[in-house]
Amino acid sequence: MFGCLVAGRLVQTDAVQVASDKFVFNLPDYEKVNHVVVFMLGTVPFPAGTGGAVHFSFPDPSGGGAVWQLLGFITNEKPSAIFKISGLKAGKGGENPFGIMASSSRLSSSVAQVGVSVEALDQLGQQIPVSSAAVSTVDSFLHFTQKMLDSLYNFASSFAVTQAQMTPNPSETFIPSSCVLKWYENFQRRMSQNPNFWKN
């Protein structure tokens, strides 16, 4: 139902369902992560009148219980959101809405957690996300986009084969890697000339 994306890493779609309406992703080496994107996979919509509250929890080395911070929301109308986690502070936040199964005390000190809690839309509207999680600048968005495109190109390139290595397969469509590289270089050039071109 949900996916989680960090620049430079493979997409995570293996959320652990800790309750009928609660899902948790583990985020290893969170210290190296600046932004995280949480999105719906498009396979299962939210039930009518509900959305997802997205939370973040630091590891709890003191053993005092996980502290969760509300990052924001996703809904059927807004099925993805990007959040800045590099500015969050450990130890500040609310109680664990995900139960004992999602306790970060069981995890390594370098593993944080991102959780999605399915809740009524009117309840979501009454909750206030931490302000430091908002990504509001174009520079941050473009920086994330560039890193995401780097990751996509590197991932796609790992499957590259020469024409001599190709095996005929009528069910596959092959795209020349030079075509993807040319598009990416053109994107970078346009972005450097006009950072707002993507709004057009």
TrEMBL record:
Pfam families, sorted: Hikeshi-like_C (PF21057), Hikeshi-like_N (PF05603)
Key words, A-Z: Cytoplasm, Nucleus, Protein transport, Transport
Protein's UniProt name: Protein Hikeshi
Superkingdom to which the source organism belongs: Eukaryota
Compartments where found: Cytoplasm; Cytoplasm, Cytosol; Nucleus
PANTHER family: HIKESHI FAMILY MEMBER, PROTEIN HIKESHI
Functional description taken from the UniProt entry: Acts as a specific nuclear import carrier for HSP70 proteins following heat-shock stress: acts by mediating the nucleoporin-dependent translocation of ATP-bound HSP70 proteins into the nucleus. HSP70 proteins import is required to protect cells from heat shock damages. Does not translocate ADP-bound HSP70 proteins into the nucleus.
Domain Hikeshi-like C-terminal positions: 140-200
Subunit field text: Forms an asymmetric homodimer; required for binding and nuclear import of HSP70 proteins. Interacts with ATP-bound HSP70 proteins.
Lineage, top ranks: Eukaryota, Metazoa, Chordata, Craniata, Vertebrata
One of the record's GO cellular component terms: nucleus
The species this protein was found in: Pogonophryne albipinna
Entry keyword annotation includes Secreted: no
Gene Ontology biological process terms from the UniProt entry: cellular response to heat; protein import into nucleus
UniProt domain Hikeshi-like N-terminal: residue ranges: 6-133
Family to which this protein belongs: Belongs to the OPI10 family.
Gene Ontology MF terms: Hsp70 protein binding; nuclear import signal receptor activity
